[in-house]
């Protein structure tokens, strides 16, 4: 298990951090490690505060139930996170996560320094995942613009099939032009793919 002292800063309650760390450590996958833990600090006495654990692979919301004897976990892989947001108030800060599917979850009454740490780490991961999603989108766009063209080599099949209609060279050329216009492919890639499509006509 990770050293507790790594997480004890910004006046965090050692017992609350230790409890969260123990529970989260049991959930970690291979090569996953805890990067930061932030614990809620309500103005009233709160024996079982909610907390957030950030790992190198996901963000985990931890909410104790039954006076702390059990805990609910809600986690999101970083690639599912679209945006991390922080709002500071008089009695602390609220940290909100929005997912790529439109969902959102928040935790309030976080000490401001802890919320800033969550936000900073979240922004770094957001940048990484934004680039990851952009690359995936680019690969998918390239594939749909002609990477999957099938040429029917059977000479005795004169009838057009739905698959052939789907692989319409003119439609693929239009997609290519669109990708070029949106700077998703280079001029060279456009010309090479265009030549491939025209050669198959």
Could you give a quick summary of the protein structure above?
With 201 residues, the protein is of the alpha+beta class. It has helices at 14-25, 112-147, 162-166, 169-181, 187-199; strands at residues 34-39, 51-55, 58-65, 70-77, 81-89, 92-99, 104-110.
**Shape label:** elongated
Radius of gyration: 25 Å
Sequence stretches where pLDDT stays below 50 over 5 or more residues = none
Secondary-structure-derived class: alpha+beta
Largest sheet: 4 strands, antiparallel
Number of helices: 5
Q: What order do the strands of the largest sheet run in, or round the barrel if closed?
A: 1-2-3-4
Can you give the mean pLDDT? 79
SSE sequence, one letter per element = HEEEEEEEHHHH
Roughly how many Å apart are the termini?
Answer: 62 Å
**Which range best describes the helical content: under 10%, 10-25%, 25-40%, 40-55%, 55-70% or over 70%?**
25-40%
Strand content: 25-35%
Fold blueprint:
Blueprint: H1 14-25, E1 34-39, E2 51-55, E3 58-65, E4 70-77, E5 81-89, E6 92-99, E7 104-110, H2 112-147, H3 162-166, H4 169-181, H5 187-199
Antiparallel strand pairs: 1-2, 2-3, 3-4, 5-6, 6-7
Helix pairs in contact: 2-4, 4-5
Which descriptors would you attach to this protein?
201 residues, alpha+beta, four-stranded antiparallel sheet, 39% helix
Structure description:
There is one protein chain. This protein has 201 residues and is of the alpha+beta class. It has helices spanning 14-25, 112-147, 162-166, 169-181, 187-199, and strands at 34-39, 51-55, 58-65, 70-77, 81-89, 92-99, 104-110. A 4-stranded antiparallel β-sheet has the order 1-2-3-4, sandwiched between helices. Helix 2 runs antiparallel to helix 4 and helix 4 packs antiparallel against helix 5. The model has no long low-confidence stretch (mean pLDDT 79).
